Amino acid sequence: MIRPRLILLLVAVLAAAVMFVFLSGPDIAPGPVVVEVEDVQEPEMQGAELEEVALPLLGSGPLQVHLEYLGDANYQSPTYDGNLSGKVLNVYGKPLPLARIEVVGGPQNKNFAISNSEGEYQLRGLLPGMHIFRIYSGASAEIVRMQYVARKTTRDWHIGQSISATFEIRDHENKVLENAKVRSDFGLREAISNEKGIAVLHGIPSGGRVVIDVFAEGHVATRHELNLYAANTTDVIKLSPLEKGGRLAGRVKSWPGGDLPTITIVPRTAESRSGMTVWEKFQDVPVDNEGYFSFDDLPTNQLLDIRVNHAQGICEPRGRALTAGRQSPTRCDFIVRLSQAKVSGRVISEHGKSIAGAAVELLADSPLKVLAAMYPSIGSQRLSARLPMPSQLRRTTRTDKRGAFSIALGDHIQGTGSLLLNVDMKGMVSTQRVIKKVGTMVEVTLRNQRGGASLTLSRRLDGILPRCEWPTVPDASEAAGERVSELLEGYYRLHISRGSQTIFREDKYWISGETKIVL
Question: For the structural domain made of 342-446, what CATH number should be given?
Fold first, then answer.
């Protein structure tokens, strides 16, 4: 039997022998592994020639081209700081493209924007204050809403599914009221209450802040903004009882001829009662031929600013602050005297000849300053009254056969900014002057339009252009096929769409001569 000590001795001897063999051999430095490859010349890589391909236009169907004239190169607009943006949504809450959002009434009547393919819109340069907006498209119902616009305001318009809504109307004694007129969307839909005070409005597009107005003899004309949806209109909607209306009357005893004076009433303070007053009922209302005026259905718990407006005169007194009478009308009289301050001048051609019949427009450069000076509450509070349109914001006349014009400044309040004088004549390039000092003669030269401008659409690489339709073009233009001609040189709002897709859009696009757009 082999002992363990002997086994360990044999292992040690073998290990020593192995080490002797490795350590006694020659030194061999490890070298890199070299792989021999045949020298094969690779072919030279050359850039491939790419062929330009015209991709198909987005959408389907014909091109819809909306083209609206804004003004010529000299035109400036008065200073406006309000901005409104948001989305227009359809009955499914999805974006509604090509919807038109348009101002109704007031100093910026018919200003508009069109929503893009994502339903987004933006109205820049609005006067801060309360505005009324009309929203519609060819693919939806029409709605009218009100919105106070500040420097940066966001509002989404939801044109929901058509619903019916039932309203209960009560008078100032909380009794059901018959023969009250109930309307939605500023009169697009109307109904008359029955002997039970019930009025049913059909076809209301559901949505948030739907405008509902109630008119009844002897009661304040009242407005509500209600969230109306199918889920919350199954029962009768009980509106708050109407308030007893007040009265105001008077006379403009004299004025310098021309158009009839107009009366505008604006609240001095914001309303604290239930509902709002339908203030546009009391704005820009002309007196009768004898100068008399009378207003019913006014609120009796608010101080009211009453102003008389006339393009050629200064009103005495400048304005009155009164409350409407509960039993008998509160009375106030005015006199309008001819203004001695005038903006006068002459319009001639580039050859020195007098131009008769030219349109002359005098605008306030800072309309909000003018409105705030006339109505202290405007611009300082979120009133439910729409911005009024007094003559101090805009006066117009035409040149006589000698090319002369004269515009009385009327009641232009000092410290409310400069004036903008616009002169326009068909076939000629309009001109604008800034008026900072009155009493001096202004000579305005109009040059002839250098031929009719045109706009032509085409496809890249001579591709096929879809059929073109021109639903909105200037009156004097001629649109046929892919071309519209007889355009005035100037800036245009241009929107080209196909189906629900916007192909091209510019809010201020210059057109002169033979202008071409390649799509």
Answer: 2.60.40.1120
